[in-house]
Every structure is written in structure tokens, then in C-alpha cells.
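ugh finaly. both done.
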Amino acid sequence: PHASPAPTSDPARGGLPFAPQPDLAPSSLPRPDAALPSAVPAVPGALPLANLPPIAPPPLVSRPPAVGPIAPASADSPWTSGGPGIAHTIGQQAADAASAPALVPARPQGASAGLAGASDAAAWSVQLGAGPSSNEAAHAAAAQPGAPKPTALHRPAIELLWLNPASLPRIRKQPQWKELLATVKPRPDDEDLDDDLPPARRLPPKDRRDALAILTRGEPLDIDGLEAALHRALEDPDGFIPPLVLAEGELEMQFDELETLKATLAAVTPHLPGNTRLKELMDRIQEAFKTPWMQHANGVLEELTTQVRDTFTQTVKTAGAGYLDAMVERTLLDGRHYQKRMAFGQPRLRGLLSGGRLGGTARKAAVYLPETLEKELPRFRRMGVRLLGEIRSQGESADPRVVVRAMAIARLLS
């Protein structure tokens, strides 16, 4: 074995003792542009490798483009005009922006004909401040061949429940509906409707079409609109003439006071055993019914119903919330026991119209329907409706300020 040379140190350099290193002169280093060997030399004990292809050197970096000289500052700049060097105020900036010319996009070139071309041209002309407005541009685009027909937004689906044919001549004369009725066309299935009704009660197809057109496509009023229409009619110097209106809202049918008390007593009867307070109250009510005039005293009947409800709520804890109201309402709807009043010369059903889908005020209007609808109305106490009718002022003390005598009514399906 050969001994390794002893480490040496150079005291002049102050170095540590290391083994001597080979001379690394620049001439002994490989040149950067020297070609790489075409194959990797074999290393003893290494796995055999395939000859590698020559590796091209990376491309040279091109010189960056020359940058032109910076433009001299504008003479209008406050920094070069010898001013105090203060920027414009907010008011000056606003004045400068107002006087600056507006940026206008280039007119579209080569726009295709048809709907897209008309829409692009209309948009360009509107930005220039000339040409048709946005609505006119939309109509121009829609007028192109093949353009889809405009559809009315928020047009409801309705079901006609009742129509008074005798009121249609007056309805057709109203200026706000004449133009609408001129566009109504017959449909082939008009003759097939109302086939389950006797011939005397079937509506003429034209009457049905006209009523549906107004109820569906007319502009309805809410409670505020009804009050405004009544106010204008009352201020007519030639005298009050009830105006015809199209109204929309939620109709809540009112129940008969006597039948409501009977249904309430029937609903609480299963809870009488062991309930002394409720049983004593029912005994007093039964005794009061022996008075002949009791059945027509609506105010007394409502008060007795309220007492039964309050006593039931305070003494019966096993019934769920809303149990009594649900039982009573179901009984009254099954029997169609709607509230009736003598109004406009004949008995009529009474309901209350509120804002419904239109929202707005919390005030209500009274609606009077023919008594013959008692068995024909849908089995709902509350439903969204549109109705045609004339506005009258308050007919009884229990009515709100606005009263509507219905001439046609439809149920909102959507």
C-alpha cells in the first residue's frame, strides 16, 4: 500500500493543512462553446446506456428593441407652465372631463344582415347620440325577418269563474279596453266550452273571449288605484257615475256569523268532558239561542264566537296551534256558508279584496258577488283573483271605503 502524501500548509497564506490540489488555470478549463461528446463514456460498474443524440446549444438572446426618446412635457401642464405646481381641484377636473370629447366606438364594419346587424347598428347610433332610442332600436331588431315575437311579461294564467253577459256592452265601450278587444280573434275550441251546463247558462263564445282578453291582458289596479278611481268619480262636476275597473288582489270570502258560531261549538264539543269553564259557556249560549232575534244579531254572534275561542285556547292545552281555526274553516267551506248581505237590490255574497300579488297598502275593498255563485266558487277561502266591476262607495258600516260590484271574476292560476 502506498501512503497518502502528508497534508501541507502554506504559512504565508495562513491556510489550513489540506491535500495538494491540481492547478486550475483558465487554459485547463473546457471551453463553453466546445462540442459535447457524442456519447457518454462508460463508467465501470454502471449500467449500459444508449448513445445520446447531440444536444443543440440554446438560441442566442436577441437584442431588445430600441426605446425612443421620451416626449417632452406638454406646455399646458402646471408642472412646466411656471405655476405653483399644484394639481387641478375637483371642480376643475369635473370641468375638464365635461369639455373633453367623448370616446365613440368605431362603426361596426361588415355587420351581417338580419337581427344581429340591426342590433349592432342601433347600438352604435345610440352611442353617437343620434338615431333611434333604445326602445326603437329593439323594435327595429324585432322587425327583422325571423325575429321572435315579443311576449308580455308577467301575464297571468287565469280561469274564468263567472261573467255577467248583460254587463259586456258597457264593458266594451270603455276607451281603455277598445284597442285591446280589437285584437281578439276566435279560436276553434270556443264552441266546446261549458258543455256540462244547460244551454241557457252557456256563455256566447265572443263574450267569453272578450272577458278573458281584458282579464288577462288588461292593466289591473290595486287598492290604492281603486281608491284613486273612486275619488276622481266623486269629484266629477256632472255627478257621480260608478267607474268600471279591472282589479287584482287576494279575495277572502267572509263566512256567515251564525254558521261560524255553530261550527265553532261543534269543534270544541269533544273537549267538554272535564272542562267546566267551557261547558258552562256553552250552556249559556244554548240558553241565549232561545231568544227569537238572536240568530239575526250578527254583532252578538261574533262576540259569542270570540268568547268560545278564547275559553278553548285558555283551557285546552292538548290541541295544537291552529286546530280550532282549521276545523271551523273546513266545516264552513264544506257547507259553502258564505256571508250574505242585501246589496244593490239583491242578496249577494261578500268578500274582502286585499293587495295580494300587487302588494302595497294594507287597506281592503269589499267585493259583492251574486248569490248564485255560492255553490260554484272554488273551495278556497282565500284566492288570487282578477275581477271586472264597478266601484261604489261604502254600502254599510262594516264595509271599507271602496266597494266593488263584480261583473266578472277569474281565479289566478300563476
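ok and the 2nd:
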Amino acid sequence: GHIISTTSGCSRSAAKELQRFLLYTIVQKQDQSKEAFLIGYGGGGTVAALVSTRMKGFPVKLITVSGILDTRVYTTYHGQDYYSDSLNPANENYLLSGIPQIHYVGGQDKDFPEAFTKDFVNKLPNPLSVQVKRLPSATHDNWLEKNFSIQDK
């Protein structure tokens, strides 16, 4: 399959550009039967989730690592201003329900605690296939130090 990963924050233009790139890559290879894996870490999880909902007609799987899946919860938790015109995966939960997902969470993540991911997943109406996988000793920033690897099993 095709793999696109991102660790950037999310704006409408960033989501649109990533979507355009992914569509171009898949169409150029004329390989629309293969699944595209959208992988995002932190704010990149926000981008990957948003782009995955815009990939109509293409098989997509969403994988996040300490992904920020609800920007309103994230900004409130960190005492930041929430911009209502920002894109937020939590506002697209009906679209996300039809996309297979794996969300890796750190048991020691204080930046986006695992409870936030679980709350996001619990709000998905009739999710197709969603898993939350926990690495107990992981913080938001030490995934590589923990010899973490994404395994699709």
C-alpha cells in the first residue's frame, strides 16, 4: 500500500495539499486497489485524520501515534485559544466511523492523555474498525526511545 506520514499541525491548506499529493500519487501509479496508510504523530494525527475523510473512493487506513484527535479538547487542556474555524477531526466523527483506524497511546502521555483518545473513539457512531493500543511507559515524546514500531496485526 501507499504510506503517507505527517507530524505537522493542521490548517485547511495543509490538509488540502496532503490530500492532493496523496490522490496524485495513487492516480499516477494507477494503483487504486491498494490501501493508503495515513500515519500521523501528534498534530500530524490531526492532519492524517482530516485527510482520510476526504479520500472518497480510495481505501484508506488511519494510524496515529499520540495523535491529537480533538483540537478543542487539546487547546482547552493546554489553556490555549480554540479557533472555531479550524478543522477538527472530532467534528467529522461520522465520516471517520467508516475508516479503519489504529490509535497508539502512551500510558504516560501528559500532552494528549490516552483518556482523550478513548473519549474520541467512544464518540464514533458505529465505527467500522477502530483499535486503541497502549504502550504503558510511553510519554508524548519518547516513542522512538521505547523501540516502538507500528505493527498492523
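summary for the 2nd one i guess: The helical segments are 12-28, 43-52, 71-77, 93-96, 114-122.
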